[in-house]
Design a protein that fits this description.
The protein has 304 residues and is of the alpha/beta class. It has two domains: 4-33 and 75-302, 3-Layer(aba) Sandwich (Rossmann fold); 39-73, no CATH class. The protein is 45% helix and 22% strand. It is built from eight helices and ten strands. It has helices at residues 4-33, 57-63, 98-115, 139-151, 161-171, 194-210, 250-273, 287-302; strands at 38-45, 67-73, 78-84, 119-125, 129-136, 177-182, 212-219, 231-235, 242-246, 277-282. The strands form three sheets. Strands 5-4-3-6-7-10 form a six-stranded mixed beta sheet, sandwiched between helices. The chain has a two-stranded antiparallel ribbon with strand order 1-2. Helix 1 (4-33) runs parallel beside helix 8 (287-302) and helix 5 packs parallel to helix 6.
């Protein structure tokens, strides 16, 4: 039985994202993602003006007449949503937890896909694959996806992006529109961990060749900028280690801000190096604005 407050939260997310899907995203989603794939339809006799590159030489040789292969746009797409539910996502210093932000964005994507009659699948992960929901259609399935992201209690606390990406490639037999949602606070992204970073780079590259992969980065302002607040006790959400820092120290604040700026730039550079689009979302601003910018950017690049 779902607690009343959680049920209300799910309904609120459903109402909010439905309005965004109806008013803004439905048309953009269709124009950006529909028709990217093609499937074989039939062969027919060559007609003047046809592209000679479409000639089916086997059929042509067998019949003695030129035939071409005819393709059509795929009538159905599969959308896979990979969501990091490690302990670090259960943090937010402004309006929302990063985990709630992930749920709302997932709902937006899932409802957009459902409106276009596409299948939606879900992989929930930490440093283990916590849950896999195979792609299906329908509003009840979409609401199950949202409910799982909000209500799911993971068994583990840490993050393993490589395992999640490799699992995606194992359970999907064909290319999918894929969204990887995480705060990417993991050693696999850190430039100081060259071997792990290189392994992640290879996994991302392989996944992006098979799928249309987009990384959605969950951020909170307190993770990138340290403000003066006296003595502060910090705890690593994924290891449980805690320590006290003096935030009145200019040198400490400068070091903290430099390290996190370097981390974000390194993360974004990693995505660019393998051709993966990325979206930066923050708990202190509207995720819908950033998602709209992404859709518009993809739309422009598609028609260049």
């Amino acid at each position: 039985m779902i607690p009343k407050d959680l049920f209300q939260n799910i309904k609120r997310i459903e109402i909010t994202t439905k309005r965004l899907v109806t008013d803004v995203f439905a048309g953009q989603y269709h124009s950006v993602f529909k028709g990217q794939g093609i499937e074989f339809d039939e062969v027919r006799e060559y007609q003047f003006g046809d592209d000679v590159r479409s000639i089916d030489w086997n059929v042509t040789a067998r019949t003695g007449k030129p035939y071409i292969k005819k393709f059509v746009e795929e009538r159905e797409l599969t959308v896979m949503i990979l969501v990091d539910v490690s302990e670090s996502t259960r943090f937010g210093s402004v309006k929302h937890l990063k985990s709630h932000l992930a749920a709302e964005v997932s709902a937006l994507l899932a409802l957009s896909a459902s409106r276009n009659n596409d299948k939606i699948g879900l992989i929930i992960f930490t440093d283990k694959i916590e849950k896999f929901i195979p792609p299906r259609k329908g509003l009840s399935h979409v609401l199950r996806v949202v409910r799982e992201i909000l209500y799911f209690e993971p068994e583990h606390q840490k993050t393993d992006l490589i395992q999640a990406i490799d699992y995606l490639n194992k359970v999907t037999t064909r290319g999918a529109i894929t969204f990887l949602i995480s705060d990417f606070l993991v050693d696999q992204v850190d430039p100081e961990n060259a071997d792990l970073r290189e392994t992640l780079k290879k996994s991302l590259s392989a996944a992006n060749k098979k799928h249309d992969l987009t990384a959605i980065c969950l951020n909170d302002p307190k993770e990138t900028t340290l403000t003066q607040a006296g003595l502060v006790e910090l705890e690593d959400a994924e290891t449980g280690k805690s320590f006290i820092i003096d935030t009145t120290s200019p040198r400490l604040r400068e070091h903290y801000n430099y390290h996190n700026d370097r981390r974000v730039k390194s993360r974004d550079q990693l995505f660019r190096s393998v051709g993966v689009d990325s979206i930066n979302l923050s708990t202190d601003s509207s995720y819908s604005d950033e998602m709209i910018k992404f859709f518009l950017r993809r739309q422009k690049s598609k028609f260049r």
